[in-house]
Write a structure and sequence with these properties.
This protein has 12 helices and 15 strands. By secondary structure, it is α/β, with parallel strands linked by helices. It folds into 2 domains: about 350 residues, Alkaline Phosphatase, subunit A (3-Layer(aba) Sandwich); about 90 residues, Arylsulfatase, C-terminal domain (2-Layer Sandwich). The strands form 3 sheets. The protein has a 9-stranded mixed sheet with strand order 5-4-3-6-1-7-10-2-11, sandwiched between helices. β14 and β15 form a beta hairpin. α6 packs parallel to α7. It is globular and about 60 Å long. The termini are far apart. About 45% of the residues are buried.
C-alpha cells in the first residue's frame, strides 16, 4: 500500500511539473450538443469583450463553463474547417484544400480557386461514428449547402435534417447520398435557421432519452447579412437605408443569440443541462477590410481563423477563461475524453484533448492553419504568441506577427526577427510536407482508387511533384 501511495504521489508531481494537471474522472454525460455558428467572430460577442450589444445567451454559456480566448480554426472557410472538426485531421490530409495552380499562376484575392475535393473521404473516421460506437445517437441539423452534399459529412449520423430552401427543411435517409440542390442565385438560406432550430427542439422533446449527439449548424451571420429589422438599431430599420455591413453582421449575431437561447432552453427542459455536454464553436470568422478584404476564404489573419470556443457540462469548471492557444482539431479528442471514450480516439487524430488544459494544465504545441477558397495559397503557424504567415504570391512570402502585443496583426516584424522566421519557416515547411505526404499515402490501395474524385486529387499531387506519372 505504501509503495502505491508513493508511486501515486510521484505520478502527480510529474504531471504537475509537466504542466498537465490530472483531470477528474469524467462525470456521466447523457447527451452531447455541438452548436456551430457559421462565420462567427468572437469579438462580436459580449463575453469576448464586445460592447456594441449584449449576447446574453452565449454569455450565459460562457459563464456556465470554460471559454477559450484563443481558439483557432485550421482553415479559412467552412468545408475544410468542418472536415477538421469532425476528423481531427488537417484539411490537406483530407484533400479539402485548393488545387495547386499551374506554375507561376497568380490569383487576385477575390478569385475563386478550384478545390481538390469538397467532402470527407471514404474510410476516414469521424466524431459522429466514434460517438455512435460509444453509445450515443448521432443526429444533425445542418444549414450549410457545402456540407449538405454527398455522404462524407453524413458519416456516422443516424439522422440528418437539412435546409432545402429559404423556408423549407427536409429529413434525409443517411444510407443514401444527399442530392445536390441547385439554389437560385440570391437565395438567402440563413432564413431557414429558425426552422432547423424549431425542428431540433421538437426532435429533442421526443428523443431526449436516446443519449443524443446533436450537431446543429446555423448559417447566420453569413452573407448577404439580412437580419430581421428588430435586431437593428431603431434609427436603421428603414429597409431603404444603406446600412454598413458590419452593423448588419452584428445584428445577425444578436439574432443567432436568441436562437441559441431557444436551443439551450430545450436542452434544459429535455435532457437537462446537468447531464449534457455543450460545445459552442464557429467554423471560421469574417473580415470587414481588416486587412483589405471582405468575407472569408481569402486570408489566415485572426479575424478569419480565430473562433469562439466554449465547453459547458459535467466535470467542466464554471466561469473559467483559458488564454492558452487551442485549435478546433482538438475538439474531437476532447469530447471523447469528456464522455469517457478517450480510448476510442484513433491514432490518425492530429488534435490533442483539452481536458487537462480545462482543469488547469498547460499545453504547448504549434497551431497550423491552411485551406483557402480564394486567391493564392497561404499557410500559417502560431507558436508561443508568434505567428508566421506564408503566402505564395507575397514578396517576401513570409510575414511575422507578435500577436501578444499586436493581436490585430498590423505590424510585420519579420525583418527584425530573422532567426525566428527561419526556424518557424522550417517547422511550417516540415508540417506541409508531412500533410501532403499523408494525403498522397491515403490514395494507395483504397477501394476508390480509380474514382474520378481520386483522379482529381492525384492530378493535384502531380502538380505538386509528389506523384509521378501522366
Amino acid at each position: 500500500m505504501r509503495r502505491f501511495l508513493l508511486l501515486s504521489a510521484a505520478a502527480l508531481a510529474t504531471a504537475v511539473i509537466a504542466g498537465c494537471a490530472p483531470a477528474p474522472r469524467p462525470a456521466r454525460i447523457d447527451a452531447v450538443f455541438m452548436i456551430v455558428i457559421d462565420t462567427l467572430r468572437p469579438d462580436v460577442l459580449s463575453c469576448y469583450g464586445y460592447r456594441g450589444h449584449e449576447t446574453a445567451a452565449i454569455d450565459r454559456l460562457a459563464a456556465s463553463g470554460v471559454r477559450f480566448e484563443n481558439a483557432e480554426s485550421p482553415a479559412s472557410w467552412t468545408v475544410p474547417s468542418m472536415g477538421s472538426i469532425m476528423t481531427s485531421r488537417y484539411p490537406t490530409q483530407l484533400g479539402l484544400v485548393e488545387s495547386p495552380p499551374p506554375r507561376d499562376t497568380m490569383f487576385e484575392w477575390h478569385e475563386k480557386r478550384a478545390q481538390v475535393r469538397y467532402t470527407i473521404p471514404d474510410g476516414v473516421t469521424t466524431l459522429a461514428s466514434l460517438l455512435d460506437d460509444a453509445g450515443f445517437h448521432p443526429v444533425a441539423f445542418v444549414n450549410q449547402p457545402f456540407l449538405n452534399v454527398g455522404q462524407g459529412f453524413e458519416r456516422g449520423f443516424a439522422e440528418w435534417c437539412y435546409s432545402t430552401g429559404e423556408d423549407s427543411i427536409r429529413w434525409h435517409d443517411t444510407s443514401t447520398p444527399i442530392p445536390n440542390i441547385e439554389f437560385p442565385r440570391g437565395t438567402d438560406l440563413a432564413t431557414a435557421d429558425p426552422l432547423l432550430v424549431a425542428e431540433c427542439v421538437r426532435w429533442l422533446h421526443k428523443n431526449a432519452d436516446r443519449r443524443p449527439f446533436v450537431w446543429i449548424h446555423l448559417l447566420r451571420p453569413h452573407r448577404p447579412y439580412t437580419p430581421l429589422l428588430k435586431y437593428l438599431p431603431e434609427n436603421l430599420r428603414d429597409p431603404k437605408l444603406n446600412v454598413d455591413p458590419r452593423i448588419l453582421y452584428a445584428a445577425e449575431v444578436r439574432e443567432v443569440d436568441d436562437m441559441v437561447s431557444d436551443l439551450v432552453a430545450a436542452i434544459d427542459s429535455t435532457v437537462g443541462l446537468k447531464r449534457s455536454l455543450i460545445i459552442f464553436v464557429a467554423d471560421h470568422g469574417e473580415e470587414f477590410l481588416d486587412h483589405g478584404m471582405r468575407g472569408h476564404g481569402h486570408s489566415l489573419h485572426r479575424e478569419v481563423i480565430r473562433v469562439p470556443l466554449i465547453f459547458v457540462g459535467p466535470s467542466i469548471p464554471v466561469g473559467q477563461t483559458i488564454s492558452t492557444f487551442a485549435t478546433t482539431l482538438d475538439l474531437a479528442p476532447t469530447v471523447l475524453e469528456l464522455v469517457g471514450a478517450g480510448d476510442k480516439a484513433p491514432k490518425s487524430f492530429e488534435g490533442r484533448s483539452l481536458v487537462g488544459v480545462i482543469h488547469g494544465g498547460k499545453t504547448n504545441g504549434p497551431i497550423f492553419s491552411e485551406g483557402m477558397l480564394y486567391g493564392g495559397t497561404k499557410r500559417s503557424l502560431i507558436e508561443d504568441n508568434w505567428k508566421l504567415m506564408f503566402d505564395t504570391q507575397a514578396k517576401p512570402p513570409y510575414a511575422l506577427f507578435d500577436i501578444e502585443h499586436d493581436p490585430l496583426e498590423q505590424t510585420d516584424i519579420a525583418a527584425a526577427q530573422t532567426e525566428r522566421v527561419t526556424r518557424m519557416e522550417q517547422q511550417l515547411g516540415k508540417h506541409t510536407d508531412q500533410v501532403v505526404a499523408d494525403l498522397k499515402a491515403s490514395f494507395h490501395g483504397t477501394p476508390f482508387a480509380s474514382s474520378p474524385e481520386t483522379e482529381r486529387i492525384l492530378q493535384a499531387m502531380r502538380t505538386l511533384g509528389y506523384v509521378g506519372g501522366k
